[in-house]
């Protein structure tokens, strides 16, 4: 009987580990994200990329290693609404950073400023890369991805990590 319970428990956990994203990473993201802030999954963004204004909230050194094609650099440390003043307030916007914490903060500022269609990229660029989606450096595809720091870089399971 005890073996049957253990086996049932183990089998129930398989979906948690088989989605390409670890249970630990999903748990981390649940602690970072506000429940009511809109998220977009990497594959949904990829399928509809042309519809969105894509804002990379990471710092310049991170962006220069690689970014999602078409993204505009809007650094977290120097963010101002003037940097996005040409974007219509009803334009669909996706913000992203390494995992989504910094981008969610900027996304909230956008909503407070009257932007009505703002989404945070679920799992950030780390999850994007882990899903096998492409990143670019100066319009050339690359495998390099800035790992933010060694502590956060553990969440990158694909790509060549760079720290600078």
Automatic annotation (TrEMBL):
SUPFAM superfamilies: Rhodanese/Cell cycle control phosphatase (SSF52821). CDD domains: RHOD (cd00158). It holds the Pfam family Rhodanese. PROSITE patterns: RHODANESE_3 (PS50206). It comes from the Bacteria. Residues 48-137 form the Rhodanese domain. This is Rhodanese domain-containing protein. It comes from Mongoliitalea lutea. The lineage of its organism: Bacteria, Pseudomonadati, Bacteroidota, Cytophagia, Cytophagales.
């Amino acid at each position: 009987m005890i073996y049957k319970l253990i086996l049932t428990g183990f089998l129930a956990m398989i979906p948690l580990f088989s989605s390409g994203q670890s249970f630990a990473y999903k748990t981390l993201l649940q602690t970072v994200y506000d429940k009511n802030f809109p998220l977009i999954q990497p594959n949904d963004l990829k399928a509809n990329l042309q519809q969105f204004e894509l804002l990379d909230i990471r710092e310049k050194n991170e962006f220069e290693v690689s970014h999602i094609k078409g993204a505009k650099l809007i650094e977290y440390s120097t963010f101002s609404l003037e940097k996005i003043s040409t974007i219509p307030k009803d334009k669909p916007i996706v913000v992203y950073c390494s995992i989504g914490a910094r981008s969610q903060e900027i996304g909230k500022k956008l909503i407070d400023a009257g932007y009505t269609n703002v989404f945070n990229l679920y799992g950030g660029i780390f999850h994007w890369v882990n899903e096998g989606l492409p990143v670019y450096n100066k319009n050339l595809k690359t495998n390099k991805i800035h790992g933010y720091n060694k502590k956060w870089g553990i969440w990158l399971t694909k790509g060549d990590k760079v720290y600078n």
